[in-house]
């Protein structure tokens, strides 16, 4: 459905994308993860034909995309990170305006606009001027614009950033709903819990390079690393120093009274964890083992990339 | 054609809701009413200030009342138009308002044409209306040296063509410059420079500013070259604007 090979983009001498490649299959949700400034929005803008790229190839539905091939745009819906509208229009007027640009037949427009306003839960605010919309409402209207004329592929750039929990919940549910309707979704985000909730595939973009691209499950299996969260009665002062020398411990994080121990050899950890804790001679309130989250994996991979 | 129609409607909604029509109407039509009235009252107003026979000092007739309106159109009204419309294209690009329309297949050339056409028609209507109103007041208040309405109409068309040239130039500069105010200032500078260049006989008829001189003289002689030149410049500037818009990154 979407294929990118060796995509490169430069701004002057600065190379934002350094030959990235990935593939998204039909009906899946692909999440492009990365820190702010990693190149996610640049990738989005290239994939939606808004900006040119310097090298590489992009195929959408088997057809090559470049800025001169605007026909492919018809198969795409795009929600930018900060959607901007003509604020003096109402939500409904704006959808009619975009429908006119798309050339949607007059008799079909009314039904489609009403359906979309229902889908994004904006029906009550449809006749309100956009300048009076909250950030969440603007995001929902942007989503309605992206979905207009039923495109097969939807690109969502940071769809949940800066939203309140309720709007975030709504948007994520709508993304899952779109997947149920057979849409292929490519989203970029730095909110990893959102990606974990909706994505089938993820790509980790760091410093203009994709350092992982594949199934989310595969990523978790490959980089799975158990974590022991230990709550102490009083936080030991020299715990990090003492535990850092242990071979099977990969990393230690201390937050409030909890020490999180990241393990690289689970068998060794099982045998020795209690022994190592007892050496600290501080009363333990609880010890719990959990699997690491996408956030843990992401931070680890980005750290590894920094050392390269 | 879809983009053209959609943007034409959008420009109408925008101009209405942002009071652009009202500002332009006041900026153009107000002087059409005020000029003849002020000129009529001028001798009365100055009577107490200047001694002597004012009627012989200030001789105002219908022709000079209309010429005064043309002078205002050439100065204050032009400034109002430039300040009102200076952000027409640039503001939309810089605030990323074109992202959604473009991502839904909008044709950037059609956006440029719709903007030029909308403001050309709007300003032409206001200018011709202004001249008609000015004619009514001027003929009502002054009875000497009356000019026929058809000549006034030709003058209004010449002024309209000049304004269309100004709008096209403003939109062109707005597509290449990052700030609308700089585009407006540049148009103003070019307007002033051409008012000087028009005094060179050999090139005068090729300079759009000559349209103002022709409108002011109420003459129909040798107007074709200047009209054709101005229209040609408008076409060339429009083509350049479309080419630039199709090359810039709108995000």
From TrEMBL, chain A:
Alphabetized SMART domains for the sequence: AAA (SM00382)
Molecular function in Gene Ontology: ATP binding; ATP hydrolysis activity
Domain ABC transporter residues, every copy: 2-232
PROSITE patterns, per database record: ABC_TRANSPORTER_2
Coiled coil: none
UniProt protein name: ABC-type multidrug transport system, ATPase component
Taxonomy, superkingdom: Bacteria
Keyword Transport annotated: yes
